[in-house]
Amino acid sequence: MDSHRLLKIGLFGFGCVGQGLYDILSREEALPFKVERICVKDPKKLRPLPSESFTYDWHQVLQDDSLDILVEAISDANEAYTIVAEALRRGKRVVTANKKLVAYHLPELLALQQEFGGVLLYEAAVAGGIPIIRTVEEYFSNEPLERVHGILNGSSNYILSQIFKLQKGYAEALKEAQDKGFAELDPWLDVAGADARHKLCILTAHAFGRTIAPEELAFFGIDHLGGADVEYAKQSDSVIKMVASVHLTSDGELVPVVLPSLVDASDDLFVVEQEFNGVVVQGTYSGPQLFKGRGAGGHPTGAAVLSDIVSISNGYSYGYKKLGKTTNAPALALDFELEVYLRSSEPELVAALGLTNLQNVQRDNDTFSVLGTVSLGNLIKNQDHIRKAGAYIMALSSDFVGAPRKKVKVQQEVS
């Protein structure tokens, strides 16, 4: 390809990410890229560019062979999949920022690339401006990884920072996050842990060579966080972070989970505050390394999209090296045990979860809190029950790998 030729971009969506990319390219005039066509859905929506700048039929953009690269930046994951899949069937080079799309459809997207010769990159789908997929994919391509974990959702991290740093209540902190654009009007994906789940699925494929469906993964958030839970964390000289983690057990099985966790000052994630993300990649030989940066926002995410545009224009594609090396993808370690704190008004949850080593049982009117040990399999199986009960559950440490810490409290029964 002529390196001096201006490369034309077809852009789907003109929200936060699309506008961020457009603004960066407008400022960086030396870059050989131009947004040639922008496809949006709603002709009536007020936008910062004149109406003639937009087209409303995505088929027209896909059929435009003068475009060199397509960028998908719309919010609807199903519609995004339709567009991206069709683009890959046409052998196009595509960049997406949609983590839900990739998490739910990675095997199909891989198959389409292999069959039709298109290329898909999605650095912006995980941890905003942190180049974590490329780091895991390239830098750690030959080194076995033991664990990848971190804070993958900036909205929930911002809320938790307000609660622990400024002593704000959950509702007040959530509204502030929404007012600042960190959280959506419907914040469920962010605060319930589903957004972090999607990102963890993607990281697991690149780090450990297993494509894992979101349904296979246990995820819990801070949407039911209460004052008593915050107080317990403070008494433990800790803060709460929503941690997404995947690691290999000594038996070579995977433990993927999204779980609020107690984090003390000795933890790498303790310093990741406000809307920032932080990811710790632990190599067998290189040890843990912390990558910290802005996890959301138009410019950080737009910069990640731009990085993929540059890479794809230079002929880069993911090698999926861990997938290629793994003849048998690791199984899930369903019997792996985590030490947790549970607060609920439904005592039957304790039995349903199979909680063992019960300690520190406390009651407050119709609710109770308890410490105990639970298996990954029981967490996965009962996660909807926990959510419907309005219960709050968190890990007693972000070090899911280690053995449960010893407690000295006397065991009590929950009834």
Write the SSE topology:
Blueprint: E1 7-12, H1 16-27, E2 33-39, E3 54-55, H2 58-62, E4 69-72, H3 77-89, E5 93-96, H4 99-116, E6 119-121, H5 132-139, E7 145-151, H6 154-166, H7 170-179, H8 188-191, H9 194-208, E8 218-219, H10 227-235, E9 239-248, E10 254-263, E11 276-283, E12 287-294, H11 298-313, H12 321-325, E13 337-344, H13 348-353, E14 356-364, E15 367-375, H14 376-388, E16 392-395
Parallel strand pairs: 1-2, 1-4, 2-3, 4-5, 5-6, 8-10
Antiparallel strand pairs: 7-9, 7-11, 9-10, 11-12, 13-15, 13-16, 14-15
Helix pairs in contact: 1-11, 3-4, 4-9, 5-9, 6-7
TL;DR of this structure?
35% of the residues lie in helices and 24% in strands. It has helices spanning 16-27, 58-62, 77-89, 99-116, 132-139, 154-166, 170-179, 188-191, 194-208, 227-235, 298-313, 321-325, 348-353, 376-388, and strands at 7-12, 33-39, 54-55, 69-72, 93-96, 119-121, 145-151, 218-219, 239-248, 254-263, 276-283, 287-294, 337-344, 356-364, 367-375, 392-395.
